[in-house]
Write a structure and sequence with these properties.
SIR2/SIRT2 'Small Domain'; 11 helices; 264 residues; alpha/beta; single chain; 43% helix; Rossmann fold; 2 domains
């Protein structure tokens, strides 16, 4: 890890991004807490309020499914009202500039897409809470329809085929989608610059993406409020809010690109 001032770190990251190549960003809950979405691990987070419902229990027990949906309904307003913050918008601007190939995210809120990153450039390793899927037939059910049924007293919604409905996210004890994980690994291994934003890098296998990137020669930078176990292996580590640091990085990239264009 390089010990340097915040401004110097911003400039180093900006130069790496401005150089072009295959730039990949990996985001965790820390980028979305600034949009009002609660995280899981911090004090007062979701896991402190609720014991997770295991996937096998969800499949086995109607009572477990009802409890799962009760919690989702309680958290629904936070997700429904959330809007992209300056960090999401900065990443969308970098993508529009051609300086960001893809966003690999642990988040399930869809805020990267709302900010303007195309859906095919976002790899949602833990799925999306914006989709409700039948676990039997695989059909997608409109999310508003499901939450309307919850408000009307349907405690554990089921599909017309009789299958259990569940947000299209990865629950405890449920395996990640193999194709999605393979794409995330391939992007990480091919990255020239790999930027981690707002993740403690504790949840595996998603947290191994920086390892794949660094092992294959990428410039690795971490922007996070707290320490991570990969800090010492990083080229730059910045401590601070994503909504402050990412716009600063964007502005630095824009300045470097503009300077290069004027000198050509």
């Amino acid at each position: 890890m390089t010990d340097e001032t915040t401004q110097a770190g911003i400039e180093r990251i900006a130069r790496a991004l401005a150089a072009g190549g295959r730039n990949v960003v990996f985001t965790g809950a820390g980028i979305s807490t600034e949009s009002g979405i609660p995280d899981y691990r911090s004090k007062g987070g979701i896991w402190e309020r609720f014991k997770p419902v295991m996937y096998d229990d969800f499949l086995r027990s109607r009572e477990a499914r009802a409890e799962y949906w009760r919690r989702k309904a309680e958290l629904y307003d936070d997700f429904a009202k959330a809007r992209p913050n300056p960090a999401h918008e900065a990443l969308a601007a970098l993508h529009a500039m051609g300086r960001l190939e893809a966003v690999i995210t642990q988040n399930v809120d869809g805020l990267h897409q709302d900010a303007g990153v195309p859906d095919d450039a976002v790899v949602e390793v833990h799925g999306s809470a914006r989709r409700i899927r039948c676990l039997s037939c695989g059909d997608l059910i409109p999310i508003d329809d499901v939450y309307r049924r919850l408000r009307e007293g349907d405690e554990a919604p089921e599909c017309d085929c009789g299958g259990f409905l569940k947000p299209d996210t990865i629950s405890f004890g449920q395996g990640l989608d193999a194709a999605t994980l393979e794409r995330a690994v391939a992007l990480s291994r091919a990255a020239d610059c790999f930027l981690v934003i707002g993740s403690t890098l504790l949840v595996h296998p998603a947290a191994t993406m920086p390892v794949h990137a660094k092992y294959n020669g990428a410039f690795l930078a971490i922007v996070n409020l707290s320490d991570t176990e990969y800090d010492e292996d990083s080229d730059v580590v910045l401590r601070g809010k994503a909504g402050v640091l990412l716009p600063a990085i964007l502005h630095a990239v824009q300045a470097i690109v503009a300077e290069g264009a004027s000198g050509s």
